[in-house]
Amino acid sequence: MNKLAKVGLTALAGSLVATSAFAGSMSVSGSAKVTYGSTGSERVTGNPFSNSKGITFSGSGELDNGFTVSTGYTMTNAAFSSSYVSLDMGDAGTLSLMNSTALAGIDKFDDVMPTAGEEVWDDVDADDNGVVGTTSANAIGYEVSAMGLTISASYAKESVGTANSIVLIADDLVDGLQVGYGTGKAAVSASVENDHSTAWAKYTAGMATVGIQTSSIDAASADEDRLGMAISLAVNENMSVSYGVSTVDFETASLDDEESSGFSASYTMGGITIGAVMNQTDSVAGSSGTDYSKKEISVAFAF
Asked: Looking at the domain assignment, is residue 262 inside a domain?
């Protein structure tokens, strides 16, 4: 064997040894969901049956200094859904780059009321009125916890300006109680920003969790204030049920309050989850007499 071949093999062997010292792994998980949904007689609908598929690629590895890097990429129905890259620095917190997923900041806590399925305002109509959120599109997030307190922040640079938020959460004031407050700004134009804020309290005792959350969006055109309340019951280790209400005050004389209520239930057995949701919203977007409902039963499989 000539000297060049020996040198090449030695270099290859050295690179393989160096690579094997990096503790990393990749995994793939998937989901399939079959849903029967009804929007009631107030709207014309097509086939009530639908099927959604999801696939997630996940990877993680430990660096030489003990920090952990993780990443994830999710597709829904073969289209991009969300992605992230996170650096877990232990006691120093976790730094993330988030794209269409909320790992930190006010978007992560837009509605923290207990539910066994969907939020009471979700899927009824296309508008999530009164729900706070600055942005999760290629946003930087940071979250750290110490002595029963958690600080969660986000920042994003957009074409018309910046979006930022910060949330403070306390979990150890009373056993079973969590309280939190968040505030943020979102640029809607080069000269206009919307102010977002939210505050909540949740209490868990035994099988029951109750919560109340108030949110405010101060916009240049019209303010929106939302009040939500909910209760959930863990019937057993497999089954949960919940009921919640939400009211949005548009602070505009010509608009009525938007009132939502909903019931959810879920039963999980291994990799199968059976869910039921019944949501109702009256005066959608403040329009009197525009009342929508959404009912669905689903079976989801995790792989």
From this structure: yes
For 124-172, write each residue's pLDDT tens digit. 877 889 999 998 889 999 999 999 999 999 999 988 889 999 999 999 8
Q: Report pLDDT for 190.
A: 83
- Region 98-119: mean pLDDT is 96
- Residue range 236-291, pLDDT digits in tens: 999 999 999 999 999 888 999 999 999 999 999 999 999 999 999 999 999 999 99
Instruction: Supply angle C-alpha 108, 238, 301, rounded to 5.
Output: 70
E-assigned strand segments in the chain = 23-38, 49-62, 68-76, 79-88, 94-99, 139-146, 149-158, 161-170, 177-187, 193-205, 208-218, 224-234, 239-249, 258-269, 272-282, 292-302
Contact 93, 149 (CB under 8 A): no
Whether 14 is covered by a domain: the verdict is no
Q: What is the DSSP letter of 17?
A: H
Query: Which pLDDT score is estimated for 111?
Result: 96
Q: Which domain holds residue 53?
A: 25-302
Pair 264, 118: CB distance under 8 Å: yes
- The CATH number of residue 94's host domain is 2.40.160.10
Among residues 183, 184, 187, 243, the alpha carbon closest in space to that of 211 is found at 243
Domain total in the chain: 1
Q: What DSSP character marks residue 129?
A: T
Tokens of 223: 């303010």
Coil, helix or strand at residue 284: helix
Closest by alpha carbon to 263, among 296, 236, 285, 290?
296
What distance lies between CA 227 and its chain's CA centroid? 19
- Across residues 48-63, what is the average pLDDT? 94
Tell me if 220 is assigned to some domain.
yes
For residue 112, give the nearest of 221, 216, 248, 215 by alpha carbon: 215
The reply to whether 198 falls in a domain is yes
